[in-house]
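Q: My labmate handed me this sequence with no annotations at all. I'd like to see what the chain might look like in three dimensions before we decide whether it's worth expressing. Could you predict it?
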Amino acid sequence: MRLANLQYTARPIEAETLSVILPLLAEACAEGADLVALPECATIMAKDRNTLMEEAGNEATSRGLSTLREAAAKHQRWLLIGSLLLNADNGDGQMVNRSLLISPDGAIHARYDKIHMFDAELGDGQHYRESDHYIPGTTAMLAHTPLATIGMTICYDLRFPGLYRTLAEAGAQILAVPSAFTRVTGAAHWQTLLRARAIENSCFVMAPAQTGTHDGGRQTWGHSLIINPWGEILADGGEAEGISMADINLADLPKARHRIPSITGGRAFTLSETETD
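A: Here is what I predict for the chain of 277 residues:
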């Protein structure tokens, strides 16, 4: 099976971003990709919230979603839209950060709303408070496809290993982690966290990422990765816009899980504490 991560710099205007995505998608499909993945905030990254909401729409009206569904059907490929920022239509001006898996006929096969909100002050001059504007998801998603069983997650979820263990124990073969990691966190933690999720869960990891400098000056790390269950990096997208691809064999999964059976070897335990002097 051939996996392809698309890496690029999302623009504040959706049509401009789609003009970057569609040629990359066509190229990846022409090169034999079976599953193509886009990063978090796949079609829009805008500093101005009003611009973002006007461009986004909701799931029923999103121009980006309809365009990408048509593209998946045209190329007859599985397409993971890492996430779309969509209006929640709850009257409070909130949004959802939703990953969508599109089947080769253009249908929405699975949806996942990002559970963990990125609220952080990183010392890079920018503050992040996703919980102010986004409704967190409450349900993990395991997507069964003819290609593989895919555990769907988004970006900051990566720092919560319990989610990935739940997906792996339920049968995930590929853990999808579409992201828009900042340069600060990416340089420090990105590769380490992704390799850890692959190793501890004996799963393939597919992590398409935003890269470059976005509207308002936000910088993302790039380095889209594909990692095997042994923690080996099969593809690294570097920092440029483009495609990174790797061929994987799902037969490697039981081999890795037999060598180190961490999925089945866990044991229940209790916690004991000393008393304070």
